[in-house]
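Hi there,

I know you've been waiting on this one. I reran it after we fixed the sequence typo, so this is the corrected version. Both the input and the resulting structure follow.
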Amino acid sequence: MSQTNGRQSGRDPERHRGAVTLRRGAIPTSTADQRLLDSRGRSDWKTKDAWRALRILAEFVEGFDTLADLPPAVSVFGSARSKPDSPECRLAEELGAGLARAGYAVITGGGPGVMEAANRGASEAGGLSVGLGIELPFEQGLNDWVDLAIDFRYFFARKTMFVKYAQAFVVLPGGFGTMDELFEALTLVQTGKVTRFPVVLMGTDYWRGLLDWLRDSMAAEGKIGPVDLELICLTDDVDAAVRHIVEAEAALAADQEAVREAAVARTAADQQAARRAADTATPSPGAASNGTGSGGAGRGVVDGGEG
């Protein structure tokens, strides 16, 4: 067994914070998110929160700069606790490969379980596999199938990147974190913060109870509209999921092209109307000469009368 400085390699917990790597006793007992949101530390707000704001800004800058050149991408969510041989992991791996073949990069939280399976499928199919990690109280780390990775301190900075650089969300069976991402995406689409953003649920048996409740309780009591249920595509078919995403992107492109053409036509019509108005307002040279002559004759008659 290989050892380094008397310690077994790869066995000690490790946490990354940007360029900083922490191991063993140097790993703090709380995360940056915990310290930011802990209302009991009120006495620290004036001295520490201003510096935290700069750190938060740095996370956004790092994320924007790193991901700006991504090809079209799809964010895939699911449980970190799923076993590699579970149905959802097998489905996630097929999905990652299908998205890669369709030309999409695959973005996950970079962890194990469903995330690792989706990253693996994308990587093995020749696509770009992205992992957006997060500092957690328990060790998780980035899986080995991630090609491009960013480690975040703050959930809200990370969540912005999931939406900003994705054309769609695909959500497989998962826990609270998966539900958080699912309902945030649905809220953004429902409120028009993002447009034509497909949300695909995969794992029909897992999601059926939730969808029944959304229809029979939430929609039935008027908490959401019937059309809001149409924001969700439920399928176990990878090809159907990818096709749904591709068609939504094509429809959005068509809408944007129609808007562009309408704007061009409107500008051309405005310019033509402006030219017609200018031509009408400007007298011809002949008309100007006749008007001057007539005016001159009139002045001559008056002057003559006065003389």
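Quick highlight: The longest helix spans residues 238-281.

Best,
R. S.
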